[in-house]
């Protein structure tokens, strides 16, 4: 009973954090702004999330759970690539959460950053999920003899790299269009998935 | 004469900053560590670079100048794509400067960050340079009917995105190999550049 209430409170906090991020961006998402929104003292909030980084990592973990149904392991098998295209389109409508992800990813590569472990673990998982999606649609071999695992590394890089360019200059960069360009490259330049890949 | 001495001093500071970054990483590259290395008081250093961000942006501008001969505009025309592959290989041997670039890029997407303008300007330039390189080798049309401009956006995204995955998990990610995979995708999966692109 106590556990259930605590989990409910955590869900409230994450919801409030998302709202604050959407309104004020990554920098404005301070612990005190979140505490105020959810009706806790800052001390009370620290009981659940001891640092801003811990809170933001929890938000991103929660986003991953919603976006891909828990580390991409949907009951129905790997994500179709077309659905990933839709996810990028969806992301283009929520710059604040993409900004939070991108800023935290950037920080995480510095020494002893509290989000480093989360991102390292996440990318191992995401690359494996993407490889499964690629294998389901392309088989063992992609253009140039590339394995699904190697193509997965590229696909994740494209998604992340596009986010930075798009956040810096949204008018100059068509993020969803560029991601679909990349999916087309993986099909050897063809529009759709019919027929075998060219030699 | 005074100007020449001031420029020499700036060059000394940038060199010292690179050394400090290499030894202590992005977080360790504090203004006081750099001041000590170059034999200036912290006040003296602030005269040349008023903030840590300003100093690091100057280091990255300097790197761009060395790496690509000034915004990519080499006297000899656009960069051959193979040379870009070598640049990625070179980057894989200098994680500290890649870490500095990646951490600063991550921060730059937050509100009113001092490096935001530098990166926005830089990406406009880098996309144009990459498009020129792609046009020189592939002509007006890449696989799937993609223009050099659209392929340039992808290529820059791949380079940046790979850096994050590689910095987080260097044993799991072969950054130069992955970039060469991408160059091969742009050739429609072929190993080299001979012959026309497949329809």
TrEMBL record, chains A, B:
It holds the Pfam family TetR_C_6. The keyword DNA-binding applies. One of its GO terms (molecular function) is transcription cis-regulatory region binding. Residues 30-49 bind DNA. Signal peptide: none annotated. InterPro entries: BetI_C, Homeodomain-like_sf, HTH-type_TetR-like_transc_reg, HTH_TetR, Tet_transcr_reg_TetR-rel_C_sf. It comes from the Bacteria. Residues 7-67 form the HTH tetR-type domain. Keywords: DNA-binding, Repressor, Transcription, Transcription regulation. This is TetR family transcriptional regulator.
């Amino acid at each position: 009973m106590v556990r259930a209430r605590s989990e409910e409170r955590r869900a409230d906090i994450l919801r409030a954090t998302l709202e604050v991020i959407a309104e004020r961006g990554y920098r404005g998402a301070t612990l005190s702004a979140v505490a105020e929104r959810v009706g806790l003292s800052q001390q009370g909030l620290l009981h659940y999330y001891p640092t801003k980084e811990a809170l933001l990592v929890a938000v991103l973990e929660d986003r991953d759970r919603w976006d891909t149904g828990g580390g991409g392991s949907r009951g129905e098998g790997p994500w179709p690539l077309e659905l990933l295209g839709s996810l990028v389109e969806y992301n283009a409508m929520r710059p604040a959460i993409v900004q939070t992800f991108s800023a935290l990813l950037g920080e995480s590569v510095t020494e002893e950053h509290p989000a480093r472990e989360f991102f390292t673990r996440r990318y191992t998982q995401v690359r494996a999920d993407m490889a499964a999606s690629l294998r389901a649609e392309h088989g063992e071999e992609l253009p140039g003899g590339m394995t699904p695992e190697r193509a997965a590394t590229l696909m994740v890089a494209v998604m992340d790299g596009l986010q930075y360019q798009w956040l810096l200059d949204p008018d100059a960069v068509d993020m969803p269009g560029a991601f679909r360009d990349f999916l087309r490259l993986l099909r050897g330049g063809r529009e759709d998935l019919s027929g075998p890949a060219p030699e």
